[in-house]
Specification:
Two copies of one chain form a homodimer. With 337 residues, chain A is an alpha/beta fold. Chain A is built from 13 helices and twelve strands. In chain A, strand 8, helix 11 and strand 9 form a beta-alpha-beta unit. The termini of chain A are far apart. Chains A and B meet through helix 4, helix 5, strand 2, helix 10 and helix 11 of A and helix 4, helix 5, strand 2, helix 10 and helix 11 of B. Chain A binds a DNA duplex (30 and 30 nucleotides) through helix 2 and helix 4.
DNA sequence: ATAAAAAGTAGAAACGTTTCGTTTTCATTT
DNA sequence: AAATGAAAACGAAACGTTTCTACTTTTTAT
């Protein structure tokens, strides 16, 4: 049915080993090169990955484990990563951890059993115990978007603290003093909170506990609930600006202010993370810290690929990227009025 | 390094074939059963999928091709499908078609080369030419969410026409006559438009062309643009209710009405498709037609699995599911006031 | 022109399973 | 106790590659 390398042998009269060598980039005599090329085309030959894998112990498949694929960030990241891997001839097996550490651990096990060549992971867990199975099987792992502190792991992250700090500084520069924050207790959420706090401290502004709202996980309702909480404060104490640590959170905040008829930026200023569909289409256009998603994906893939080659030098590779501010109209300049 | 079936042979003294037979569910003497079980546990043996696949010609991997994974619907569907497949021990290679027919065709080719056992596809294309490669390779294909008319293909869809028809009838029953619709030119968009039109026709209501707004693809801006278009109509002609064919579209519409300070449901009634995060959290709660996403996923996987077994009976399997109305507070009853 | 070196080719073994045809085992019947 | 038949075990071949070693041909240097 399917043509094999033996058919090429029959067609060309060459030895299996010669053909195999050429097909894997080796040198053969020009005449034989031509013969093989012709036979391959004629027979529409494609190497059988299973047979190849049986010997080389490579599956040409990468596992991608991420905390949640149904969110916007996860979906987009998957999109980029999948594209890049396919371009390199790699398949991607994707496993959604559903924000659950034990599911995450199972995912790794599954991928190890599937004998993937490498694993990309946006982790839920904060320590690297769940990766032991992969480590034992000698499968390279690269972490992206989130790193695991203390672990000897290649990773690609953005400087969340610096990014959120400069986002909040942007607010402060425009005269805001009562700035509240909504964030999650996840990796990115906490780091972005730290940046918020640092900016406030360095500006000599204090952060009353009512100005921080957080829940376990980034979600629309986190933003919605947080904003409503702020609105319950006495008017004189209400924040003039809100820093939100994620796209979904921003959606929730916008829903909440629209509901009570508060205008942005006239009554309240907003600054958020991740410029995705909604932040781009809404009016006023949201001012956001934009993560270089494509670069995050491509760097992670690049590092993983470098680990897949022979000379996988032992040096740890940690890439730190920077977010950039995309200015919209959602922040009011209080110095002017 | 990795233990093989030969190690089990050494450990138990049994023949390879006996061990293999038992491992694949065959019968062996109780004593041997025990011996093998013990050795498997002791050596932490896992069958090598490559070696197995080389003989059985099965990769235990399913390809999932979908029109767009970065959208909410695609993300959630991927989540469900991935889960179900993993539970059956199958890996999933996911390919995003990016709403592009030629990418879609390439995706199928890629998966065929990867020798997946089966393919699930939410197609972009409207004819099945792009599946020829898979057909030739004898790889079963199941379509979900969208079917391809005229094609001999297993599929799982919902009755979009009936669903949108009853959504619009719900509006009509509450006294609405000037009902506008926003939809895309994709499969689901067009079907939902048809249901809208049918409901209107059967109620004797006419649909002026200004009451239909459409763009190529479901998106937030489609909703945003559409709603703004309706708002440009002379007040006396403005619709009292809007039917939106998708979640993202609903988001855009809500942004647009919030911007100009129109209240829902007091000034305008809304009804949409797909109850996802935002529609659940916003106030008023949106009235939506809810698709049984999990069932769509599980039925598709079930059908595919049945095709993977030996006796793949030739009968076509087409499953038609129904959406149900999830009543919120976004529709005003005009008969009351 | 010749020897040495380099480049290319060939054949066979190996990878870890499943499967097939044959032989052995064991319980049942005569 | 021997014959029968079904159930279980066995051994070898096969799956489609790569890789290793040995061999042949070509190129280069003398």
């Amino acid at each position: 049915m399917e043509s094999t390398i033996k058919d090429i042998k029959r067609e060309t009269g060459l030895a299996l080993s010669t053909i195999s060598k050429y097909l894997n980039g080796g040198n053969v005599r020009p005449e034989n090169k031509k013969k093989i090329d012709e036979a391959v085309r004629k027979l529409d030959y494609h190497p059988n990955e299973m047979a190849r894998g049986l010997i080389t112990k490579k599956t040409r498949t990468i596992g991608f484990v991420l905390y949640d694929i149904s969110g916007t960030f996860g979906g987009l990241l998957t999109h980029y990563v999948g594209d890049l891997l396919r371009q390199s001839g790699y398949g991607m097996i994707i496993c959604d951890s559903n924000n659950d550490k034990s599911v995450e651990e199972q995912n790794i096990k599954f991928l190890v059993e599937k004998k993937v060549d490498g694993i990309l992971v946006v982790p839920v867990s904060t320590d690297d115990g769940f990766l032991d199975v992969a480590k034992r099987a000698d499968i390279p792992v690269v972490t992206l978007d989130r790193s695991i502190s203390g672990a000897q792991l290649d990773c690609v992250t953005i400087d969340n603290v610096a990014a959120s700090q400069s986002a909040v500084e942007y607010l402060i520069e425009r005269g805001h003093k009562r700035i509240a924050a909504i964030y999650s207790e996840e990796y990115t959420g906490k780091h972005r909170r730290d940046g918020y706090r640092r900016a406030m401290r360095e500006a000599g502004l204090n952060v009353p506990s009512e100005y921080e709202y957080h829940e376990k996980i980034h979600s629309v309702s986190l933003g919605y609930n947080g904003m409503n909480r702020f609105l319950e404060l006495p008017v004189s104490k209400q924040p003039t600006a809100i820093f939100m640590s994620n796209y979904e959170v921003a959606l929730g905040v916008v829903m909440a202010i629209n509901e009570v008829g508060i205008a942005c930026p006239d009554d309240i200023s907003l600054i958020s993370f991740d410029a995705l569909t909604l932040t781009l289409v809404m009016k006023p256009k949201m001012t956001v810290m934009v993560q270089p998603m494509e670069t995050i994906a491509s760097e992670a893939v690049r590092i993983l690929m470098s680990r897949l080659g022979e000379g996988s030098q032992a040096t740890l590779q940690r890439v730190l990227l920077y977010a950039s501010l995309n200015e919209g109209d959602s922040v009011r300049d209080l110095r002017i009025s």
